[in-house]
Amino acid sequence: MFTTGSFSYHCDGDDYTISIQAGKHAAFPHGSVAFDASPVPFGTRIDIAVSPNTPFILKKLHIETGYPFSSSMRIFCNGFQSWTESREFLPHEKMNPMWRILKRLSLPKMGDYELFPYSGKKGRLHGYTYSYIRHADGHITLTGSLSEAGGYTVITNDTAGKTIGIAKDCQAHRCDSPFTDFRIVVMEGPEDEVFDEYLKL
User: Fold this and answer.
1) Alpha carbons 68 and 123: distance in angstroms, whole number
2) Measured between alpha carbons, how far is 140 from 190 in angstroms, rounded to an integer?
3) If DSSP codes are grouped into helix, strand and coil, which group holds residue 136?
4) Based on the number of CB atoms within 10 Å of its own CB, is 38 exposed (0-12), middle (13-18) or buried (19 or more)?
5) Are 48 and 18 a contacting pair, CB within 8 Å?
6) CA 77 → CA 95, 108, 115, distances in Å?
7) Mind listing the pLDDT tens digit for each residue in 155-167?
8) Is 197 helix (H, G, I), strand (E, B) or coil?
9) Could you tell me which of 111, 107, 108 has the C-alpha nearest to residue 96?
10) Most buried pick, 42, 99, 110, 149, via CB within 10 A?
11) Angstrom distance (rounded) from CA 115 to CA 154
12) C-alpha torsion sign, points 201, 5, 53, 15
């Protein structure tokens, strides 16, 4: 499902962007990257490892795929901590940050509003760690992280553009040893069975 992506980094005063492809190990000027995909029950596991041969600063690590969203689907987005919504969205809904409400109550901004740019457009949905798409037959397509130790995993569902994106919040991470925290599964099937398998990984 996810076969291409990219990562960006900063080294010695310059910025670099490297394209990556599933099943490929690629060398770049300051190290190498491996993008591996392997089968798991109901789907595929994705492991991306970035190995430096000289220290650099990671800026972004991202993969994306097309997806045939339809009006009958529901998209679950897991909120950031307890300050953003966790619920199923209709494909045409839009996400609105809560900071305006917090401002009226003289409360500080909380949630992910400093981390992720809210577009305010319909069908631009995002969440953290895991997300699923519920189909009309009750089956789900689950995208889930297997590790958050190296940064939050941000999952974007763009129903208008018909894409799903996965990014690691690794900006400003100093990479002086292998970065192996991008570990994802994509699974499709009956909800209970899919989640049972996901929680075993």
Assistant:
1) 13
2) 6
3) coil
4) exposed
5) no
6) 10, 23, 16
7) 999 999 999 999 9
8) helix
9) 111
10) 42
11) 10
12) negative
Distance CA 146, CA 168 (A): 12
In DSSP terms, which residues pair with 83 in a beta bridge?
A: none
Give φ, ψ of 189 to 5 degrees: 160, -165
Q: 3-state class of 148 per DSSP? A: coil
Q: Which residues contact 88 (CB under 8 A, 6 or more apart)?
A: 74, 75, 76, 134
Question: What does the block give as tokens for 92?
Answer: 């045409």
CA 181-48-154 angle, 5° bins: 60
Rounded distance between C-alpha atoms, residue 150 and residue 37, angstroms: 20
First to last CA, the chain: 19
For β-strands 153-158 and 163-168, DSSP reports them as antiparallel
Question: Tell me: the pLDDT tens digits for 107-158?
Answer: 455 555 556 666 677 999 999 999 999 999 999 999 999 999 888 899 999 9
CB 69 within 8 A of CB 91: yes
What pTM was estimated for this model as a whole?
0.88
The CATH number given to 4-200 is: 2.60.40
Tokens of 41: 């029950």
How buried is residue 39: exposed, middle or buried, by Cβ count under 10 Å (0-12/13-18/19+)? exposed
Q: Are 77 and 131 in contact (CB under 8 A)?
A: yes
Residue 95 DSSP one-character state: -
